[in-house]
Fold each of these.
Amino acid sequence: MFEDLSDKLEAAFARLRGRGTLSPADIKEGLREVRRVLLEADVNFQLTREFLERVEKRAVGVTALSAVSPAQQLIKIVHEELAAMLGERREGLKLSSVPPTIVMMVGLQGSGKTTTAAKLARKLKGEGRPTRLVAADVYRPAAIDQLETLGQQLDVPVYADRTTQDVVRIARAGIDEAKRARDRVVIIDTAGRLQIDEEMMDELRHLKDAVRPTEILLVADGMTGQEAVKIAQGFDSALGVTGVVLTKMDGDARGGAALSIYGVTKKPIKYIGVGEKPDALEEFHPDRMAGRILQMGDVVSLVEKAQAAFDEDEAKKLQKKMKKEGMDLTDFLNAMRQIQRLGPLEGVLKMIPGVNTKMLKQAKMDPNRMKHVEAIVLSMTPAERKDPSLLNGSRRARVARGAGRSISEVNRLLEQFREMQKMMKKMSQGGGRMGMPSMPGMFGMR
């Protein structure tokens, strides 16, 4: 996400960092490079021009402070203006004072609307808001089947009626059922088209007038850049959308849609889709995203991810056991599985301040390393996991065969595990705070 944009902005600012003072000519030169980078990222031309004018106006007169260089001050200004460009502040989902809150999902075919509706339902249910999905896409083949399958997988109820193509009737019946079940939120998955047409918009307008939704969320493909912005303008002028969900952001290295959509439409980005898994829907925070783009990290989001992924009771049990008996390979496997819930390790590490894309490339991370480690540990007997000293040469060979890995990988894992045991023992003796251990070597970082 934003990888190309981040790398190019980092290179643009690297030229300014070594200078003790920044003259107006230096600032112009730096911003000229930023302009080129933003336009290459498919950011709206008018927005780019206004953004650079604001930055230049604020940057004039920036002088060296005792602890902060002019280049760092300029980056701070760019960070604040980027956050403003992305939406200034986080705007969450509006909830009706009288439930159920009704959310209409709109968008073109192929934008990921049905999947996003299910992801949002899962997210709201996890927050303690019982949610019902309504299948109002009566035109796309298997759209209802897809939503019902997703609902079963996520344990979210789905209302569907295959006897009619009257979407207003379907939506009203689904809302009535939600009221009887005391659901807090109803998400209506509407039909999409390959392009915006008047017939499509008329149907959506009738549906909007009939159900009076609290939110109309446009689901747009982030990888389409300025096309997503034009689509947002079209839906907004016809319906008055209240927010945007940008999908496929995990594959968007440029970020033009995210950086343009708020500035052009003034409609906030409320969520971003960052993968295919059911939990791959993130709340959108403009200031945090600006920090990620400038490779400043995003510790707040990392902590929130950890809180959602880690089982607190399990962590406390592990901490207590490690203080008493030390950590064995079964404990390590459980800890590793909790870390895996955070998502791809590379994405997690990018949230740490000071870690940038270039560093991660140099680290030569192996994305399959976690699976290899898990296979090795699961190939051991319970006794071997409890006491790795039992693993002599012949046992290690057996474990390697069972995991489909080399003996050298088994040896390396055991050596790294011994090092980690020593570290945990020192922390325990020193009264340090215990938590999820840091295990970059285990996960293929050299």
Amino acid sequence: MKASSIAIAALGMAVCGFVSPNASAQTLTQSFAAAYNNNPDLNFARSQLREVDENIAIARSGNRPELLATISQTLQTTRTAATPSTGSRSSPTVLGARITQPLFRGFQTRNSIRAAESAVRAQSQSLQNTEQNVLLNTASAFFDVIQNRQVVELRRSDVSFLAAQVSAAQDRFEVGEGTRTDVSQAEARQAQAESFLNIAIAELETSEATYRQFTGLKAGNLRNDIKEERYIPQTLQAAIASGQNLHPAILATLYDADTASFQVATLEGQFLPTLSLVGEAQTTLNPGLGVSQRDQASVSLDLTIPIYQGGRVSAQVRQAKEALGTARIQVDITRDQVRQFTVSSWAQYQAAVRSIQTSRTGVFAAQLALQGVIEEQRVGQRTTLDVLDSQSDVVAAQLTLVAAERDRDVAAYTLLSAMGHLNAARLSLPVAIYQPEEHTDAVRDKWYGLRTPDGR
């Protein structure tokens, strides 16, 4: 019964998921928090949003005055051809200042500001989408490590079981109760099991490296401490509705369409007149002449009326309208993609839940069958090959159960992502939630300064 005991131990490890009550367990919540704080993809997306924030300040500068100062130094030489000839030389210095205050720019500034603000909202939703992707990848890597560790343990148990079968076959052969064929069959299955074990170890190392890539942590004793079921809606229709209303990818495309609409209006404003208030002051210093200093100042209203711009602006408006049409089409495409993503995730989750129940039954039945075959072999009613085949059935059933448990957990978080619910706030992660509007507000009305709000 040694081989039977090994198989029962392997079954227990598979069903229990190799989770022991350990206070130092590395939880899924901790993994999510580490990814949220450290993942470079997420930090990259936050940096991109801060870059886009500056477009609001750039657009608002269209309403602000511009002040220029000029200094010119001129060397002048004059000569009169006469009898006698005369000439003079002077070196005037001209100091000037000019201030221009836009009063009306064909609504270009207003629409540019609206376009910039809409672009910031779109980029903010893209950040949310990146956050969802990072957390989903973290969950997948987390459960991949758990699954691959279970697979490695199952493969090791299988190798131990087959080693016992090889030893038993050799003992029977030595006493004349078995054949060399029985020994060879057992050795062949053992060699195959060792090969599968090596592959499983390689896959485990790969999954642990992936986990570290997303979280920055070395995989420890992983334990899932989140009840995903409480986040799953009761019906597919509810999941679809949530995804259509909340998914950040859809919201980002809606804001992109708004941005494109404001850009059309901005370009159309170039056909309208512009009005500016201009103030100039100038001082000329020329000690070489009789008048050593001359001051002058002026204030004027400059009205510019565009008549023909070579067709450039017209082409830009048409191009912007096509871009607006493209953005609106992208909204429909993204909605369809999210809907398909939601339905697929829902189906995979439901299938995995049902598969777990049937897989547990299959493991139990395969284990009982193995025990029976081993007993029948003892009384000569079964061969070594029958035992090996029955053990193979047990391992296959255990691997199916492990895969189904992993698929259920990953499908649950995939469904949450499709619904737009996979983020740090909804999961109540123990992290300081990134507030992108703080940077937006800090730079929105910034009139000058080269340092970023964080001091760079």
Amino acid sequence: MKISTIESLHCNAGWCDFSFLKITTDDGLVGYSEYNQSYGSRGVSSVIDHLSPIIIGADPLDNDVIFAQLYATTRQAPGGINAQAIAAIENALLDIKGKALGVPVYQLLGGAQRDRLRLYWSHCGTYRMHEDMATHVGKPVLTSLDDVCALGAEVKAAGYTGLKCNMYVFNENGGYTQGWRRSFPERNAERSVIRSVCEEIEAFNDGTDGDVDILLDTNFNFNTEGYIRMIRALTPLELFWCELDIYNPEALAYIRERTETPIASCESLYGIREFRQYFKAQAMDVAIVDAPWNGVWQSYKIAVLADAHEVNVAPHNFYGHLSTMMSAHLCAAVPNFRIMEIDVDEVPWKDDLVTHVPEIVDGHLIVPDRPGWGCDIDEEAIKAHPPQWTTPKQIKR
């Protein structure tokens, strides 16, 4: 069995595009993966196109050998778009390998340690804070703390036991998200922003009657002093975690040492070499690992390293259903899984894009036992929703 063609597929997902990789073998076996291109990672498809000729004709079952070859090819510029392109290839190969052996991918990682994964509703309210995005997901725009409270009640009624929000600010001009999709140059936590975020979390707690864990994502938006001020102000509200991103493990450890709220971080890191520095510094309580960025095989290695440092892991998963399935196999196999991210507010055709929609029961994802990811792409549905930002391309032998 040899790799014969590598093809990228893209479709409209409302405020972005979904991107998928399709690898076909000479005997007709197909493996799929999902990757991120239209949000912050423009150019991944082009890198895949340049790397693909290197592996045409290779045995797809040699996934780690292929990773090593591609990593060696790009090691003078590690991480970034190169890493994401390699991960997309690795993940499609894992799907092929699982199908070829007739087993779910989690069996390739040593087996499933759990068959149910606790979920949290991610970007809860974020897509409803902007009129154009709210239109895409078919939801009303949030204009007040009363709307936030009502959304909290909606989350509880849907059976989720956790939700994650960004930072929302409401004033006489309406509402906006503080720093989502970009970081403001000042990166300071001013009193007005801190007060607004505290009111937001209180509104979610009121709406959920305190029965749903609240996670806050502050992204890259503060310096060390700002993160400490924000987290300390939120301490009485007992967040499940405060998520933040900072490219300095010592600074992150400094924040963790001086606050009481659990810290989650590292969603923007690549590979065991980058994560190792953060584990060594004891910088976080939960390591966020992006499986589409790192590849599930490499993500498993990161999770094992985290476990050796007594750190839990959680996937970064704000993508489509195939990414959810990919991350689910990782979470099922690792001993130090904490909780899994999933976006609930999405375009209405999202379910049509896959052959099997994730099964969610009482706020938990049921891990599939079908071969590979247990989920394929419906290519006709992809074609029915042309992409806004990207153009498909196929590499052949």
